[in-house]
Write a structure and sequence with these properties.
Chain A is an all-alpha fold and 416 residues long. Helix content of chain A is 38%, strand content 1%. In chain A, helix 8 packs across helix 9 (218-224) and helix 18 (380-390) packs across helix 19. The longest helix of chain A has 23 residues, at 9-31. The chains are: A mainly alpha (416), B alpha+beta (204).
Amino acid sequence: MLKWILKHKFFLLWLLLTAAIGGYYYQLFFMSEDKTALLPGLTTDGHHQIEMQCSACHTEEEKENVFTSSGVPSSACISCHGEALAKFSDSHPVRKFKNPENIIFTSEIDALKCVTCHVEHNQKVTAPMGVTVPQDFCAHCHEVTLENLDSHKDLSYDTCHTAGCHNYHDNTDLAPSFLLKHYGEPKLLPEFKERPLSSDQPCPDPWASAESCASCHSDHMHEFQKGKHGMRLAFDNLSPMRPELARAPMKKSAAHLNMDCTSCHQPEKPQGFAAYNACIQCHDDTHTRNYTDSKHFTLWDASKGVSGVSCATCHMPKVENEGGGYHVSHDNSANLKPNEKMLRSVCTDCHGLQFSMNALADPELIEANFSRNPTVAHPGIEWSANAAIKRGNKDAKKIRDYLQSLSKENENNKEN
Amino acid sequence: MHHSKYTLLASLGMLTLHSCKSEPEASSSSEGGYPAEQVAEALYQVLKSDRKVYAQKIVNRLVNKEGVIKAHEEWASEKALLLPAQFFREGAEEVDSIEGKAIDFTYSLQSKWPLNMENAKKKTPKVEEGLAAVSDPENPLYGEKWTGEEEIGGKKFFVGIYPDRAVAPACWECHNDHENRQPEYPEFKKNDVMGGIVIRIPMN
């Protein structure tokens, strides 16, 4: 027997190795819940929750065109992101580049395909917002604008979208006309914008389960599944999100909690629970921990969770309905990144635009949860005002004069 | 508005198809086999008419005469009307996003005096030539159409450039006062050719 084994030792070794490798892949494919070993590389923060749902991106369309396409078809991206892109009227939709005269632009950077700028499983080249092309991509088409604008002449091409200014898909927030409209606003606006909810009726079957909530609040459930809290629920094969699956810092005590409607909406809890207490059950980052040091929290606490500024005020804002009125957006990621998206939906309800832009452009202040005043001024509004004054805009000039007189007055007061 | 435009475009396409059957074949024909120049001519009539109606009966009437709404570049956030050039471009992009059109074509608005500098970059040598012809009062083709052929990305196109005139005060007032207007640009007045509608049709 030993003689036979020695004689066939290489065959037996090969057999053993084959069985071991086969067994490993069998359990990986058919038994194990964790299939991350099959991934070709780390996924982006935006997609890691659904990385095990390969078919979410690698659709039949990709398989059908495997020899002719260059990867994940744009239709796969649009199936999840299309609604959000349409909501704010995407600044660079694919249709904008279909006319053959755009070849001068598309030959530099093929804007007809999402995967030109967003490649997955490639951590080494992935920048914020899942961008995988060099950061100066705007210049391929807009260098002429950069060269012709006095205010932009000294800027480097890689700062367009990294300095809290422009956003390839949603460039509405910092449009020059918008900046100019808010020129000279004070830190706190004299009147705060109210966002009355269009429907606030009591629930007949309070928070029994996610399914029962969705039977009435299908629109909220739809939004919930678009954000990081609920995106896994959009796929039948995936369990609800749990803090232990998150990349952001979470509390260990909450690691195994399932994220669904009842995680935040609990009828026995006091008013305002869903807007603050529910969040701090799980979230454990510096920004969250510093919230109680902020004036936003002081207002919230003083009102006993009725008004003021809670986590939800900023991260699940009240958005306008098509037919009028407002509802609470349950897509917690909609205005999160880049943070300029919060200017219109949240900050400028109470604060002047300049103050809001200064605050959002200061990463340390964000970490501190706005518990002090911003110290650096964002130049965007000033640039727009300069251009307007140069072309003879009298209103802008009046505001400039007024601001300068205020500044002089402050200096004099300091000296005295 | 768009739907009615597409219906009209489709109808015109069919009419052109029928009307061209008895005519001799032109040197430039579109993918469907009918003379590209006639298809482009028909498209131009529709585009010009729609553009005139939008500028005169919507923008000029509601903004300048009755003052009930404004037209603004940031039309969505300002809850305003689209500027006429934006309205035209939105329509062009809608057409571009239709897959499998019976007649393939694209169109855009270009000018010798562009306010959008990126648009200036898009102008091919043929478009430069055509725009110069239809916009120059000294040129015999001033206010007329200019046609030619060009190759883009290895594909041949018929290209027709048709005059785009100042039909309402909203047109010239906005362009004359625009912040991007360059010092050498002319002071436009009623009926001036301010640019051209560029229509491209792929050729067999």
